[in-house]
Specification:
single chain, alpha+beta, Aminopeptidase, 2 domains, eleven-stranded mixed beta sheet, globular
């Protein structure tokens, strides 16, 4: 369990969604712990290890030592490791994926003219409101999104627990874009708990009543909110696919952290490591 003083330390240093216990615990129902300079989450026989240090540069050897200590402490049957790099062969992973986190530096942000035009266009048709109420209209939009887009089971599980996440975090906000009839056209969710970062968590749009530039308008509002809260950066999240990466890059987002995910069985990886040491 994490103590209040540790929560304050996390708030001072967090720069990723995975650094927000309220988010990860609401989604996974795992219990958070601090392991040295790293966050871990434990649920029964499963360990989630966040290999992004809170207060120091990333060092793979140091992370590996903390990971091994956590495995010794909690004795999990499976481990989900998220880190800039994986300290063993990817062939040891039951599941593996890689990407980059993208970031906006709010102090140097300059919005391109074409994007400003899109914001203006959307602003003529839409109004933005900030809310913490995740209602049936939001759930319906999420469900429709999953019907129309290929989404893996893990992502579907996360999407269906967004309401629980919002209920657990007082620093998470919904930005709604509505047309003149009051219909929900699109919405974003942002997390503002970290001292220096705003976190761009989710974006959903309505296919039947799509308005060009709606996502740009929402992001511009989120940026203004982050600036009001004196954040230095906005973490735009992972690239995910070419379309989402293009959107983040057109805003000036740059890759600032490598991302690797590995689901593995620790006993298998340990056995292979010991074998390699003997060769």
């Amino acid at each position: 369990m994490i103590k209040q003083i540790e929560m304050e330390r996390i708030e001072q240093s967090a720069y990723l969604p995975e650094h927000i216990p309220q988010y990860v615990t609401a989604i996974s129902r795992a219990e958070p712990f601090i392991s040295g300079n790293f966050l871990t989450y434990v649920k029964k026989d499963h360990l989630i290890f966040i290999g992004y240090p809170l207060q120091e540069p990333f060092d793979e050897k140091r992370m590996k030592n903390e990971l091994e200590d956590s495995i010794s402490r909690f004795r999990p049957k499976t481990v989900s490791l998220t880190a800039p790099s994986i300290p063993f062969s990817h062939t040891d992973c039951i599941q593996f994926s890689s990407d980059y986190y993208y970031r906006l530096d709010l102090s140097t942000l300059s919005i391109p003219q074409k994007t400003r035009n899109m914001i203006k266009r959307a602003g003529r048709e839409l109004s933005i409101e900030k809310s913490r109420s995740f209602d049936e209209e939001h759930r319906n939009m999420v469900e429709n999104f999953m019907k129309l887009h290929p989404v893996d089971e893990g992502t579907q599980f996360i999407f269906r627990r967004i309401g629980e996440y919002l209920a657990s975090s007082v620093d998470a906000w919904i930005f709604n874009a509505r047309n003149s009839k009051g219909d929900l056209v699109a919405f974003d969710i942002a997390e503002f708990k970290p001292r220096d970062y705003g976190l761009y968590m989710f974006n959903f749009t309505s296919e039947p009543i799509y308005v060009p530039g709606a996502s740009d308008l929402l992001l511009s509002e989120m940026i203004q909110e982050a600036k009001t809260k004196r954040k230095r950066y906005l973490n735009l999240g992972l690239g995910i696919n070419s379309g989402i990466t293009f959107f983040k890059k057109k805003w000036g987002g740059v890759p600032f952290l490598r991302y690797a995910y590995c689901l593995y069985t620790p006993s298998m990886a340990e056995a292979l490591n010991k074998l390699m040491q003997k060769l």
